[in-house]
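Just curious. Protein, please.
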Amino acid sequence: MMHLSTVLLLAPICSKAFVPARRIKTTPRLAAVAPAAAVVKSAAGAGFACAAVGFVSAHAAVSYGYGLAIAWHARAALRSATTPVAVRVLLAYGLKVTAYQALRDREKHYRDAVLPLFRALEKDTKCPFTRTTHKIPLVAGVAVLLALYAAPIRFLANAPRPRVTVFAGAAAAVALAVQTVADAQKFLAKRRAPDRPCTTGLWRVSRHVNYAADVVLHGAVAAAAALSAPSAAAALLAVLAPLMMVNIVLSATESLDGRQRLAYRDDAFEAYVAATPRLFFT
């Protein structure tokens, strides 16, 4: 069922990538960003290992690869963490994303609705002689994003301001709890009525409450990582991945809105859209 086993086999090969970063000689101009750059470099192997399943399945790369990479970075950072609160929440988040994706992939209605979108993404139109080379940009992009996320996690694990990580951990924990409840509500609703949207429970508060929780979680990580970074340059590098994830989530809500409008063409759905904000308040 998909390629979770492939990801689980690939991820451990990069365990050596998470040893404490070695001191590197650098010029004064680069000294400010060196700590974050060293962390990202040390996580490059893990990022590629988790993204490499994109050569087999784009769906696996952006779902299982993403969840496992977050969990892997968090687990590695906890080995030497002095401020572990937020990192423990991120470990739980990564494992939850992976487990929930595996659960959804067992549902026929989900496979029928989502997998064709990824097959279209994987379709080769430029390289008829191979089914691999055209996937390199996808795998490389996912690998870079996953490696970049190691920087904010490492800064949160050893933050000079412990209260910052407590705040980030609390915000992330609330977001994770909301998302988990919302996912469970939608999963059960789709089992009862696969052809109808979930409009009950937390989904009455937001049409994409799961994505709203993601925005809060990644936003909290970005803010806390920026405050925990040793320099402005390091802070800039540390916020790249979480802010990219926020952008991806916002784009996904727009795309999903369009697909839902086509799938649910009735007055009841239009009334739900009119009465319920897309994410938060609008």
Summary: The mean pLDDT is 79. The chain is about 70% helix and 0% strand. The CA atoms of residues 199 and 272 lie 7 Å apart.
